[in-house]
Amino acid sequence: MTQDLSIDSLFSVKGKVALVTGGSRGIGEMIAAGLLVNGAKVYVSSRKAKACDETAVRLAATYGGECVSLPANVADLDGIESLVAEISTRESHLDILVNNAGVSWGAPIEEFPEMGWDKVMDTNVKGVFFLTQKLLPLLTARATSSDPSRVVNIGSIDGIKTPSFETFSYGPSKAAVHSLTKVLAAKLTKRHILVNAIAPGPFPTWMLSTGVGTGGDVDGTDWDAVGRTNPSGRVGSAEDIAGLTIYLCSRAGQFTVGEVVTCDGGSLLR
User: Fold this and answer.
1) Torsion-angle region of 245 (φ positive above 0: left; ψ -120 to 50: alpha; else: beta)
2) What domains lie within the chain, and their CATH numbers?
3) In terms of Cα–Cα distance, which of 188, 220, 183 is closest to 204?
4) CA-CA distance, 133 to 205, in Å (whole number)?
5) Of all residues in the chain, what percent are helix, strand and coil, respectively (each to 5)?
6) Is 63 a known active-site residue?
7) What is the DSSP string of the chain?
8) What's the pLDDT tens digit per position in 249-267?
9) Cα separation of 205 and 85, whole Å?
10) What is the pLDDT of residues 191-244, one digit of tens each?
11) Which residue in the list 43, 63, 170, 247 is annotated as catalytic?
12) What value does the CA radius of gyration of the chain take, rounded to a whole number of Å?
């Protein structure tokens, strides 16, 4: 059996077609950038069309390659079906699906609303399942045992540990994503679709900035101070999350199936 253990072979995503939901900012944008700069054609999707369009243009201008905006709300079936229909008119297959779109909701337990529960569960769990389901024809179209398609679900360390913030639906939703990852992996591996999850810790994102009290001001947040609370002494970077995603989507990660891989700088060790 011929072996190619070179870095270029092991970690290549060149020529792959990828869809990254929640790709207009934060971790989704970091992952999209990593795939794009390494030769993948990347579709980014998010609920806000203007932000999605701007990110696609910026990423293509910065890294080269082809980055296409497909705005959609993956919290409901209409949005999911619209997204699937749109990408199906452009592509005959899909190699990589990154289910990153996610929301949170914070409120004291006595005041936590049903809307805050339903919105988080619909986006973070239902959206992951039904988008994957609807994209199965594209994911299986060119998948083989030697070159399987990949699904990477973005969970959270809050789905493993008790969350620090009063986000009562967020942690359970991410725990559900981790469980769903294993269920999907068990069902889809024989169809040459490998499913794994990443559980990120602290990253410099809009969502975390709301939790640490800067209200969505990513640039105005003291990320060095946030990082000092972490065993690694810092928050995550684009290299961290993109590198792990590329591993899971390349030949190097082809025997890793149904795993929830933390990317947290040691947060769970505190």
Assistant:
1) alpha
2) 7-201+236-269 (3.40.50.720)
3) 220
4) 28
5) 45, 15, 40
6) no
7) ------HHHHT--TT-EEEEETTTSHHHHHHHHHHHHTT-EEEEE-S-HHHHHHHHHHHHHHH-S-EEE----TTSHHHHHHHHHHHHHH-S--SEEEE---------TTT--HHHHHHHHIIIIIHHHHHHHHTHHHHHHS--SSS-EEEEEE--GGGTS--SSS-TTHHHHHHHHHHHHHHHHHHHGGGTEEEEEEEE---S-HHHHHHTTSTT-STTS-HHHHHTTSTTSS---HHHHHHHHHHHHSGGGTT--S-EEEESTTGGG-
8) 999 999 999 999 999 999 9
9) 30
10) 999 999 999 999 999 888 888 878 788 989 999 999 999 999 999 999 999 999
11) 170
12) 18
Q: Which pTM does this prediction carry?
A: 0.96
Give the residue carrying structure tokens 């569960």: 121
Residue at 198: amino acid letter: I
Q: How far apart are CA 93 and CA 218, in angstroms?
A: 36
Residue with tokens 């020529």: 15
Structural tokens at position 58: 């910026």
> In this structure, are residues 36 and 67 in contact, taking their beta carbons and an 8 Å threshold?
yes
Tokens of 214: 């800067």
